[in-house]
Amino acid sequence: MADMDFNNTDLKDYKASGALEGKVAIITGANSGIGRAVAIAYVKEGAKVVIGYLDDEEATAETLEVIKSYGGEAKALSGDLGKSENCDKLVQFALESFGQIDILVNNAGYQYPQTSPTDITDEQLLKTFEIKAFAMFYLVRAARPHLKDGARIINTASINAYRGHSDLIDYSGANGAMVSMTRALARRFVREGIAVNGIAPGPVWTPLITKTFGDLNPDVGEDFGKDVPAGRPAQPYELVKAFVFLADPQNSYMTGQFLHMNGGDFMST
Questions:
Q1: What is the structure's pLDDT at 209?
Q2: Does residue 162 have an active-site annotation?
Q3: How many angstroms separate the first and last alpha carbons of the chain?
Q4: Which molecular function GO terms apply here (predicted)?
Q5: Largest CA distance in the chain
């Protein structure tokens, strides 16, 4: 479909306000999709960015080039963030690169559909939770000694944490764990001036969608997102203002909350 463009993340018309001047952000899963759009928005807002990614060197190089074209500064480090040692390395890389960490965006994701829970192997279950829930905790644990008053932690969960998905049972559960830990961390850090919030997107057109559902449904681009009131999936750039809002140091009284960017699906919590 013509309007389904994975690379529709350059934000050429994005109007920045300088909300993140002088800040340094770690963003995981940021070489494509939502993470890439957020990285570009953050550098436009004045932040320096460290990108954590698993693979796809070409996409990473392209993301860094786009950021450079806007006069931004960014560096990238590859590693499986489901392993705690790689999360430690990413935090140290950020400190060595830019000397501080002000914003942590846990955005990396993994999902693999199964039509029955009996088809979910131990390995798949562990991998899903490692990438979504464990990595978030590992990175918070590694970054915490370096986060000061005014720091922000933002976790990308999913609408599936709230309504479930019959073919993504483990993924729904991992995102539910992320939501619960976000609330717990928010309560722990609130009096230290560190806000912990999240975003629970509905359908968003990213490379993860064809990787996930392409084999099962070659026409996924035609069908994806039709079940929400908007009748379409979001493009990544449509979410970035929410990520900027949650990262803004002036947004100082909101913590433990999730913003539901989902095309009109009402969430009760």
A1: 66
A2: no
A3: 33
A4: oxidoreductase activity, acting on CH-OH group of donors
A5: 50
Residue 74 reports pLDDT greater than 60: yes
* pLDDT > 60? residue 214: no
Q: Return the residue matching tokens 């975003």.
A: 199
Tokens coding 40 = 């570009």
SS3 state of residue 240 = helix
Pair 22, 224: CB distance under 8 Å: no
Confidence of residue 208 (pLDDT cuts 50, 70, 90): low
Distance separating alpha carbons of residues 104 and 107, to the nearest angstrom = 9
Environment class of residue 146 by beta-carbon count within 10 Å: exposed (0-12), middle (13-18) or buried (19+)? middle
Distance CA 108, CA 136 (A): 9
Handedness of CA 208, 214, 218, 223 (dihedral sign): negative
Q: Domain boundaries in the chain?
A: 24-259
Say if pTM beats, i.e. exceeds, 0.90.
yes
Provide the edge-to-edge strand list for the sheet that holds 258-259. 74-78, 48-53, 24-28, 103-106, 152-156, 195-199, 258-259
Four-way CATH pick for 24-259: 3.40.50.720, 3.40.50.1110, 3.40.50.150, 3.40.50.300: 3.40.50.720
Closest C-alpha among 128, 127, 115, 122 to residue 171: 128
Q: Which of the residues 42, 138, 162, 171 is marked catalytic?
A: 171
Q: CA of 247: how far to CAs of 6, 45, 244, in Å?
A: 24, 11, 5
Query: Within 10 Å of residue 57's Cβ, how many Cβ atoms?
Result: 11
